[in-house]
Specification:
3-stranded parallel β-sheet, 4 helices, mainly alpha, 5 strands, globular, 8% strand
């Protein structure tokens, strides 16, 4: 049986992109699960009431160790995660999807970044800004995180 090299390369690339999309979707699910009320806070104590949340597009974290191809896949995955998140939040009256401001946040100083987030919140009329960023994550890291979360939630293992 003769294996065509171009087909293998394409299959590897497609597999890598599918893996990135899976990782980003899982990260979005973790993010949305993280929006739940903290344990013991279901009554609303110590939680500030917010009328509006400005949601920025998902941005990939720059990593020097990533190849150009991997970074492009991560950017594609971030764009996909943005579309999924926008679809999930589109019917929420407290959410205002904000686009194009992510370049404003590409600064090194945390104080400048905070000031720019505050400006985005003020400009959108929202009291909170949701900034979601992703980094390259291996399957091993993803599985470990998922298992730790599942096992921690099991009452029989406590």
């Amino acid at each position: 049986m003769k294996i065509i090299p171009d087909r293998n390369v394409k299959m590897q690339r497609d597999s890598r992109i599918a893996g990135c999309i899976f990782v980003l979707l899982t990260a979005v699910l973790f993010l949305l699960a993280g929006c739940a009320a903290p344990a013991g806070k279901e009554d609303g104590g110590d939680i500030v009431a917010i009328d509006c949340v400005a949601v920025l597009p998902v941005t990939p974290l720059q990593e020097a160790s990533l190849s150009g191809q991997d970074m492009a896949a991560l950017q594609q995955g971030s764009a996909y995660a943005t579309r999924v998140m926008a679809g999930e939040l589109a019917n929420n009256p407290k959410v205002q999807l904000v686009g194009g401001d992510e370049e404003m946040l590409d600064v090194t100083g945390s104080r400048e970044r905070l000031e720019r987030l505050v400006a985005i919140g003020e400009r959108s009329g929202c009291q909170a800004v949701l900034l979601t960023s992703f980094r390259w994550i291996t399957v091993e890291e993803l599985v470990r995180q998922a298992l730790e979360e599942r096992l921690a939630a099991c009452p029989y293992l406590k």
